[in-house]
Amino acid sequence: MKSTTSTSSTTTASCSVDSDNITTTTLGRLGIFSDSDHNEYPWKINKWMTESDLGSLSRLLVQTNLVKNHILPFFGTDSLGEIESGKGTRVRVWDQDSQTEHELVFKKWSSSNSYVFIGKWYKDFVKRRELKVGDLIGLYWDSCNSRFNFCVIQLKDLLGCMQFRSETGSTTV
Predict the structure, then answer these.
(1) Which of 47, 78, 90, 134 is the most core-located residue (most Cβ within 10 A)?
(2) Which CATH architecture has domain 36-158?
């Protein structure tokens, strides 16, 4: 079995090829989650970056089912009304990798019946973090701090592998 390991400041990844020539990449987030933790994997929303997420229109599109299951239940009636009306509500987003806080607007996009983060998404996340198509990000609502937590789970160019096994044990291609 051939094996390589790569580590950035917060992400570790190992790539191995077994005797059947099947490539598997195992990713880990340093200091955030490990198999020895008994806590639930926090990143409820995982999103592969697309051209539309990275464009100058400054919006991050989130699947409706993920919003209904992992975002809307945490908001009060007033905020829900603002979100659903399309006006939007201001939300704080903590970038766990860089330890910085940012403000975005979260709203329902009525033309497509989907949900988006808008505002300074492009400047504060895409440009500053140098996000690319194929990068994997994670988000979840942090009830203790009343904000979203954000991280880059996988950089597309970290390893050239076609397949990886995430910390939760699921395989993604």
Answers:
(1) 47
(2) Beta Barrel (2.40)
